[in-house]
Amino acid sequence: MIPILTTNNQFVLQSTYPIADNVNVVCGMSVYINDRLEWVTQSIESVLNQTIPPDLFMVVIDGKVSDDISLYLTKIEKEYVNLMLVHGIKNQGLSACMNHIINITLPLKPKYFFRMDADDICVLHRFEKQINLLEKHQDVDILGSALWEVDEQGNRAGIRRLPLSHTKLLQAFSRRCPINHPTVAIRYNVFERGHRYLVAMRNTQDYFLWIALANDGCKFANVKEPLLHFRRINGFYKRRGRGKSVNEFRARLLAMDLLSQKSIKNYCYALFVLALRMMPAWIIKLAYTADRFLLNLKKHN
């Protein structure tokens, strides 16, 4: 068996069991102070109960969390040989947590890295579906999917669909982030080439990473079938304003520059969205609902 991996002075590994001899699939999640036990439980169990579960499921406790979540994670870690906990000495954000998982698992030579958020729920065949597609389409480096948007009680509110083909995805980068981050599966050779999440980014880190990967020639695709239930919680529209809006604006400008998508139309769109995101939450909610409706009317290839 592979020995327990060492960590740096910002993270401490907790593992009852040694790592399996062969690790092909790694799933990464982080948990922090604002997460709820009910949602964390649903999220983790949706990964562990997959038709093809990950060989290694690493959950980073990003700084202090509630006592009930801490007790739950300690208990369930002892029950599953493929589950490992990583304790962050302090809260460092999603980028640092995911980068740490990537860095300490690279020596294991895995094939695929799956993202998961602590308040979402995987469809039970998500991993199987994405693994089979990545095995079949060796040219695809990053594979996302559509998702169900659900409210705080788990009721479905609609489907978020995005372009399916690499060509359509590439064209979309200057307008929107065309990959649903918590649905993504990434080939590890992407990380072997040195790519990582930007640690300085506390949001939109995925958007900037996708642009860097697209600029490096990586190929993207999305699965048409929704493979995840995405929690749209209260305050969702408020949180999409201000700081995140500015970062999204910066990402759009970067995509225009690096991917040769500069145009008056794209610049005007970026400015319009930035202005819209500074408006009251009810206007943002109305615009977001209309955007989802128009996206779902389109037939993506």
From TrEMBL:
<dbReference type="GO" id="GO:0016757">
    <property type="term" value="F:glycosyltransferase activity"/>
</dbReference>
<keyword id="KW-0808">Transferase</keyword>
<comment type="similarity">
    <text>Belongs to the glycosyltransferase 2 family.</text>
</comment>
<dbReference type="InterPro" id="IPR050834">
    <property type="entry name" value="Glycosyltransf_2"/>
</dbReference>
<feature type="domain" description="Glycosyltransferase 2-like">
    <location>
        <begin position="37"/>
        <end position="187"/>
    </location>
</feature>
<dbReference type="InterPro" id="IPR029044">
    <property type="entry name" value="Nucleotide-diphossugar_trans"/>
</dbReference>
<dbReference type="InterPro" id="IPR001173">
    <property type="entry name" value="Glyco_trans_2-like"/>
</dbReference>
<dbReference type="Pfam" id="PF00535">
    <property type="entry name" value="Glycos_transf_2"/>
</dbReference>
<protein>
    <recommendedName>
        <fullName>Glycosyltransferase 2-like domain-containing protein</fullName>
    </recommendedName>
</protein>
<keyword id="KW-0328">Glycosyltransferase</keyword>
